UniProtKB/TrEMBL annotation, chain A:
Organism from which the protein derives: Paucilactobacillus oligofermentans DSM 15707 = LMG 22743
Highest taxon listed in the record's lineage: Bacteria
Key words, A-Z: Membrane, Transmembrane, Transmembrane helix
Pfam families listed in its UniProt record: YibE_F (PF07907)
Keyword Membrane among UniProt keywords: yes
Protein name (database record): YibE F family protein
Phylogenetic lineage: Bacteria, Bacillati, Bacillota, Bacilli, Lactobacillales
Transmembrane segment boundaries: 35-67, 79-97, 178-201, 221-242
Record's keyword annotation contains Cell division: no
Database matches in InterPro entries: UCP031503_TM, YibE_F
From TrEMBL, chain B:
Transmembrane segments: 12-30, 128-147, 178-198, 204-229, 303-323, 343-366
Source organism, top-level taxon: Bacteria
Isomerase as UniProt keyword: no
Protein name in UniProt: Multitransmembrane protein
Pfam families (alphabetical): YibE_F
Species, as recorded: Paucilactobacillus oligofermentans DSM 15707 = LMG 22743
UniProt entry keywords in alphabetical sequence: Membrane, Transmembrane, Transmembrane helix
Length: 254, 372
């Protein structure tokens, strides 16, 4: 048995013991997201427009993460609509940013790994850099929108007659409480994986200026900033969507 | 729209104006900061483009390569004000090369050819993009959640400083104590972050305990699995940017990568249990534990996916390159995605384990014994 299979089994067993049915769903969502991510690579390899792949696969990954993450329909629908709006807003920020930053493809530090490979593969790496930036932030957006919308669903179920303004205040206060830890999840998630690169930078005495203009570092920092922006705008947007969705729910119940 | 109006108070408008001024000034600064760089920076003033040449590689990938002749105006150093011309070649893919436009700022290395000044391109000036994005983040935080937002940002900045310090220490010991350094760092990170987010309290201690135990146990379990399976299918040679022994470095990366998520989840569970305790002071340990488990169940799925997407998208472009270079999907996965998958799985284990640990610790701290 390979280590990956064994670790996967350990994770599955732990998720089933501790999470029960919810654990099974969490594991399946991981597998599905893996499948769709690999599918995205293949689609792009077959020259499907990276922009369409980003939108299509992005929406699918959001749907998988959100609808398999929680059971309550008001929570998941609100989170899903809100995260779609966030996805569109982020896309309109990311496209110009990637064109200004030009951090597509590979940096000078990658050249060892690329030896013997053909780089003239006829893919538009600039467009693909938009794809990777968007995909890397999707999890964070989904998680934040579920957290806000689940919290608000709880508030509404206990105080159904809150005004929209009060709901907005509640949403922002839930947002404040998740912000600190979410930022750190993202920071560690991104920086942890780049430990080796930082050792490289500092071992070879890169200057501050060199690091701040380095293709790989700037690309990574752009992803962190974009995720931060995504999480921050998710908070009020999820609450806004909730002020619409809650009435829809009451109509359904009547 | 009414909500928007209520939200735009006079105070907010003042803050917004201040932020706009700061933003304008810093953008002006990063576009005129060449004097602070030791490396020569030049601005493209003219571009002459040749006809594109068609290229087909051994795997039948079609691309086009184009030559550009750039006229550059030097912006700093003792050659400031002089013009040079440099040739540049780019492909339509722009995987490791780049097409330059008028007004782009480029780092160049100057040298003399037969008494004439020339140069080679070192890289593109990108610092202004980072400043712009940082400014947007600060603006959004100040306009929506000024105090909590600043604390969150402060904890990230402090962690970044500590991170740099730890890397320095690692280099000083020439990579001999990677796990010791970054293990200690993980503990310091957790203490500092939780102190900033929660303040010194019983709640913070419970969260800290859960974070350290959850992460620690997941690393131990993973090491046991590594030993039992003889690390079959883990290709350390495929790790990127290694300048030290890859295995401990990989473990340290995994440890740090999952730390934030485990902390995130423990915070949520412990916070909910403290809330429950304040509503019903007589709640039993068993009830608290079960409530904690319920909170954890609903967070773990999305959280595992957050890290999974971060780890895996890093491998996206190299996976694509491997496939386009005629490698089989199996080999492509092994060489690019296997390490990311292992990292995702280990952090997943940490996230799941943090649920019983956090619920248990908080229940022990808060709950009454069943017999009472």
């Amino acid at each position: 048995m390979t280590t990956i299979t064994a670790l996967g089994l350990v994770l599955l067993i732990l998720m089933l013991i501790i999470g029960g049915k919810q654990g099974w769903k969490a594991f399946m969502s991981l597998i599905l997201n893996f499948g769709f991510l690999f599918f995205a690579v293949i689609l792009i390899a077959f020259h499907v427009s990276p922009f369409l792949v980003t939108l299509g696969i992005g929406i699918v990954i959001l749907a998988i993460t959100i609808f398999m993450g929680d059971d309550d329909l008001l929570t998941t629908q609100t989170a899903f609509y809100a995260s779609l709006i966030v996805l569109l807003i982020l896309l309109s920020i990311i496209v110009p940013i990637e064109h200004f930053a030009m951090v597509q493809g590979f940096g000078a530090e990658d050249s060892d790994a690329l030896e013997g490979m053909s780089l003239y593969i006829g893919m538009n790496f600039l467009q693909i850099s938009v794809t990777t930036t968007v995909l890397s932030t999707l999890g964070a957006i989904a998680e934040a929108s579920i957290a806000i919308s689940a919290g608000l669903t709880e508030v509404i179920s206990q105080h159904p007659h809150l005004t929209n303004r009060q709901l907005m205040a509640n949403g922002m206060s839930i947002g404040e409480s998740i912000l600190g830890t979410t930022f750190n999840t993202l920071f560690f998630g991104f920086f942890g994986g780049f430990l080796a690169l930082f050792i490289w930078f500092m071992g070879l005495n890169y200057s501050f200026g060199e690091i701040m203009n380095n293709k790989i570092f700037v690309s990574e920092l752009i992803m962190i900033f974009i995720s931060f922006i995504g999480v921050i705008i998710t908070i009020p947007l999820t609450t806004l969507v909730m002020t619409h969705q809650r009435h829809k729910k009451f109509v359904d119940n009547d | 729209m009414k909500i928007l109006k209520q939200w735009f108070t006079n105070k907010k408008i003042v803050i917004l104006i201040v932020l706009l001024i700061i933003g304008g000034c810093s953008m002006w600064f990063v576009n005129h900061n060449q004097m602070f760089y030791h490396d020569t920076i030049a601005k493209v003033t003219k571009v002459a483009t040749d006809k594109p040449q068609k290229q087909v590689d051994t795997f039948k990938n079609k691309d086009q390569v184009t030559q550009q002749k750039l006229t550059l105006h030097i912006l700093n150093g003792n050659k400031k004000g002089q013009d040079i011309t440099i040739k540049n070649e780019y492909s339509d893919s722009q995987a490791a090369d780049q097409k330059y436009k008028v007004n782009d700022q480029i780092f160049v290395k100057l040298h003399h050819y037969d008494g004439k000044l020339g140069g080679t391109i070192q890289g593109f000036k990108r610092d202004y993009v980072l400043v712009f994005l940082a400014w947007i983040v600060v603006c959004l935080l100040m306009m929506s959640m000024a105090f909590k937002g600043s604390m969150a940002l402060l904890s990230v900045i402090l962690n970044a400083v500590l991170f740099i310090f730890a890397v320095k220490l690692d280099l000083h010991w020439q990579g001999n104590h990677v796990m010791a350094i970054f293990g200690t760092l993980a503990v310091v990170f957790s203490v500092l972050t939780l102190l900033l987010v929660l303040g010194p309290s019983k709640r913070m201690l419970a969260t800290l305990g859960a974070t350290i135990l959850g992460t620690g146990i997941s690393i131990l379990i993973s090491l046991a699995v590594f030993a039992l399976t003889h690390e079959k299918g883990i290709y350390y040679e495929s790790m990127e940017y290694v300048t030290q022994v890859p295995r401990p470095l990989f473990l340290a990366e995994t440890l740090l990568g999952s730390l934030g998520a485990v902390m995130d989840e423990s915070t949520d569970i412990v916070a909910t249990l403290f809330e429950l305790k304040s509503i019903d002071p007589n709640i039993s340990r068993g009830q608290l534990f079960l409530s904690g488990r319920k909170v954890g169940q609903s967070i773990m799925g999305p959280l595992v996916n957050v890290l999974f997407l971060i780890f895996m998208t890093d491998t996206f472009i190299s996976t694509l390159l491997y496939i386009k270079n005629g490698n089989s999907w199996g080999y492509t996965f092994a060489m690019n995605m296997s390490l990311g998958t292992v990292q995702s799985l280990i952090s997943g284990i940490g996230i799941v384990l943090a649920i019983p640990v956090a619920s248990g610790l908080a229940a022990l701290l808060l709950g009454r014994r069943q017999s009472v």
